[in-house]
Protein 1
Amino acid sequence: MTTDDPGRPAPRTAPVQAPTTAYEPPAEPADRSADASAQSPAAPPDAVTCRALHYAFGETKAVDGVDLSVRPGEVFGLLGPNGAGKTTAIRCITTLLPVPAGMVRVFGHDAARERMAVRRLLGYVPQQLSADAGLTGRENVELFARVFDVSRRERAARVAQALEAVNLTEAANRLAKTYSGGMIRRLELAQALVSAPRLLMLDEPTIGLDPIARTTVWEHINAVRAATGMTVLVTTHYMDEAEQYCDRVALMHRGRIRALGTPNELRSALRARRARAALAPTAPHTSPASPPFPSTPRPSPAAPAPTPPFSSSAPSPSTPPSTPPSTTLSSPPSSDAEPTLEDVFRDVAGSGLDEQSGDFRDVRSTRRTASRVG
Amino acid sequence: MSEAPAAPHPVSAEPTAAAGHLDLLLLPPRARTGWRVLPARVVAMCMVELQKLRHDRTELYTRAVQPALWLLIFGETFTRIKAIPTGGTPYIDYLAPGIIAQSAMFIAIFYGIMIIWERDAGILTKLLVTPTPRSALIAGKAFAAGVKALLQAVVVIVIAALLGVAMTWNPLRLLGVVVAVILGSAFFSCLSMTIAGIVLTRDRLMGIGQAITMPLFFASNALYPVAVMPGWLQAVSKGNPLSYQVDALRGLLLGTPSHLGLDFAVLTGAAVLGIAAASSLLGRLAR
């Protein structure tokens, strides 16, 4: 079932087989790579192209074969829980990490070999609140104007425009340490914008912000994109944001992309799968080949019930290790309701969503960010 | 890039951002190339340091306390005791260049901690995604440390002058002092950033920083001439860039016999080596 591709009309002839193929690589990336390699030389290159990207920290495979293409001008969301490999993938694309295996291109430039060329095309906002607290807002932006070689003649005007774009003109001469979390995020956006990037990369841009600040940050991202036509690649674990603001999303889990498409495509594909599953007899359960797992969604007393990474509407069953939950397991409470992106994610991610949702360091850095935001 | 966004977009409310006149944000700036990159980045980093100091000078003042005490208590006392053979110059005069070098070194040694802090805060990460080669970034940080140390040196020179130390006011010699302070600080900040690239955490670096500053200080000619040291310590002192920095400062400020050519050669070489070592280890900090 992980291989179901929302983009194609008839992904499988026999849905009965689906649950037994646990972690088969998604068919869709291969599909996309075929059409990208066939692209004519006249066609503009994709904003980001990853082919078979792998990255491992020692034994841990953070990114385990990612293929994706971000089209110029779109807002592309990379979604997944903590520890899914989103940040590592982003760091490979930004040239912060080497590309040990696979290929990464940004507007046709190889991220491993043409680092400077790639960096000139990028505006990057990391997960942490990274403005320098000891400088004013304007000075923070000026620094990035300088390191991107904005000429002295243009610098003041360009910095002013970047600050204007994120509505920080009035606060520009205050020290960044007096800013709220949302203001710092906007300041970082201005820092990224001052060099006129073609690709804006935002790593968890709204993490730890209050709902109003989240909306404001997104509105500025959208307004700037509308005005400049730049491509936006954003990672988030807020499914609602992705649903609302992203043109296309990729759902990432355990270093792999499990589904890719517009939020609507993904939702309707899940609806179709559920409809098929409802029609089909409960074959996987009676099949002797299927792995044993509890067939009734009874609440397990043994489960310590850690908070799932996404506040869940449908209660997740106790997670049997490495058995993909059948749609019949998770869907009954909401099968007739419109599925959300979160349901899609639960569906494609399979098991292990609650455990292993980010290692200690990851959670700690998230908490640190959250506490800095206040 | 100039084409319209791919699809109409669900904006929850009316866009509050004034995205009206963003014409400059559509034009990528013209890239500097070749040798011009390095000085531009060094200037950018030094500007940041100066701007920070303009907003908050507390560190400059608090860091003046220790050198003032060294000069006032240690200097005045040992001037009276006359225990250290300084070749005729009053001991407090002899000590002043040593204390300038020491306070500059203490500032520079702090830089490794700062770069780890910047890594944790995401500032370093973001700078590494700009078109700045790692060596240029490290050189920028190193010279920024030099600029900060220079301001500190001015404070110490003023204190020394108030205590009656007879120093030169020859502008050429003072220019030499500026260069010596900047080169020395560049080396020590790179030493610190190199260690930061090895140990990777602030706590460990703090311990190591404490452990190496005093030996560097005592195993140099900052407090006493190399001639009074035991043989093994003389050898250590000969390998210690701080000794060359102090020698240069003493020669320039007081006019005592010194080896300016050798001093500046060693300081330049040490700074270049330090920048190379620190930039080769910067990648470890970034991941």
Protein 2
Amino acid sequence: MRKWNSTLLAVSLSVAALAACAAPTTTTTASSESPAAGAASPAAAGAPSRLDTILSRGTLICGVEGTIPGFSFVDSSGKYTGLDVDVCKAIAAALFNDPEKVEFRNLDSTARFPAVSSGEVDMLSRNTTWTASRDAAGGNGLEFAPTTFYDGQGVMVTKASGISSFKDLDGKAVCVETGTTTELNLATRATEANIKINEVKFQDSNAGFAAYQEGRCEAITSDRSQLAAKRTALPTPDDNILLEDVLSKEPLGPVTVNNDSRWYDVVRWVTYGLIQAEEFGITQANVDQKLQDPSPDIKRFLGTDGDLGKQLGLSPDFMVRAIKAGGNYGEIYERNIGTGSALKIDRGLNKLWTDGGLMYAPPFR
Amino acid sequence: MTTAPPSITSSRPPADQVGAIAWLRKNLFNSWFNSLLTVILGLLLVRSLYGFLSWATTTAKWAVIPANLPLFFVGRYPVAQYWRIWVIISLLAVLSGLSWGILSRNMAKLFDRNILIAFGIAAAIAVLAPTPVPFRILLVGVLGLVLASSWMGRIVGRRMPQLGQWLSLGWGLSLLVVWWLIAGGIGLPGVKTNDWGGLLLTMFMSVSSILLCFPLGILLALGRQSSLPALRWISITFIEVIRGVPLITLLFVGAYMVPLFLPPGIRFNQLLLAVISLTLFSAAYLAENVRGGLQSVPRGQTEAANALGLNSVLATILIVLPQALKVSIPTIVGQFISLVQDTTLVGLLGAFEMLGISRSVLANPAFIGRYAEVYLFIGAIYWILCYAMSLGSRRLEKQLNTTH
């Protein structure tokens, strides 16, 4: 009987302890709308902005997916890594001159939009396709920053098959996941190209890949980023190639909440800045030398001349900080998903506009 | 006429009635149909085992496990603060050693053979673990701590048997210390719940939910049997509503809907909401398990207690509950085991508990496609956790067994 007495005592003690300890954590992330840091941003003329909240908090909270190869995942040393992650870090560096002043939240596809609207995260950098209904005020009511990765449905074939373009798929067997837009896109593009494709349908993507591996189909179609990731898991990845053809449009980029132009402009222009830096040839390594560059464009861009930073509510050298964090867009791309990674996704549409791609930043002036 | 009395020395039974062969014949080959089944299933089993072993030794690339070991165990917990985890492990090792020593002070041997074998295996794992040498030394040190403190506990426990009552208080206090060490504050740098992960987070969620749901479940069970209609109906409604909803729904409500109801600016910690959801869910099931136990206690027990002058509260706490809980130990532990496994659902909501961190490890381009290795590894850890719980419950049952 004494034993039960003391057990009950211990249980009630521990309950009290847990309840007491749990209390302080409940409101740790309460967002204070106090414009304490308003003084730091001369452009704080308008309504209170999330930008003030972030500056007074001292860290950026960035929503990521957390389990996408090359885009966002936790590496073996426990650090968030990937293209989406590096975009967040560049923005954190532009704000605080420290790329580590960012907190990541894993969000699945159900949680991502409520998390932005409720202000739980300051922004999303979590392969979200930019669509009209998501952007519209009557839809999800979000703001889409410039696209950081033009994904799209692609086709992977074995080198041995000799297929080099979508047209060559005429009469060939293609593995495809059934009941998805992937399947519809394939049929549409085949009709357009006036070729006949023998579709081999699978209920889930892993089964499709197994079939492709066994040689039951000569090609497999899915999102290009996913194909690239799965390719690395094949026994001989180099014997498989991703065709240049893109069958659908999936522009992925950072997202912020609607009706907050000051914060949205920061995200938009830092992202554009990364693309512009690549165009200027400014890299993580040479950014300090480029500060001496006589070109007026580069001077304005890096903040040695003019007051672009001030107008955005940031410090004049915000782009210097962002580039020092992880390099320009090209460096971020190659390191995470391009030639510097296991994924080796071809730049394709993600080349600069000067190289025939879609990456284009409006002028910084 | 005298005959020699029949020898009474025992002779071995005929060889065809005992031994392995006889057992085989009796159980596996007693008819042509069973023999056929045995042969076919045996071949299948051997073939699968061979397939698994050849996969495990040739195709599988186990490098993913040692490379990410810290992630599996503590997730993104800051490396500079790992020492706090080691302090926690040592503290728990000393406490469990002491408890073992004190509780088994009257047994002939401190450890029986099975436990010694388990220790041997644990020591072998500690020595051979694919971690840096300092970690292995620490692991062996922890095992040594368990042995030393159990020996100490035995000696001290024999001198001062009343010490046993203070053990539960010690465990209760250790919870506070563990909580402080994990989360920080008061003199230690804080570690945000966002950075907790792996086995640490799984254990934290399981232990907190178990400790919270146990008293809540008992109160609900008593409430359901109460003679006060309001209390009874509240308990019944709570139990039936929670039991009628899948856990994943509760977790979604906690994670996404509760923040919508709260005034803007107030936000609850996601981990706290998850623990609350798990607690409420388990408490409803636990209440039904305990009710089964309560109903198995004969009415005579309560009447006898009343006759002795105990009021109904004391009669419940001192007479009925101890007996009811003893009866329900197996089902309660079953509930706790499934609670440990249910924590994986929180991983679907983005928490880096053991399953969540595994999904992130699998997204590392260096380890894409290593599903089987990673899931086997964390499966083994879950199994060890749950099997340890069921062993513990069996021991507790044996210790509390007072039937004759």
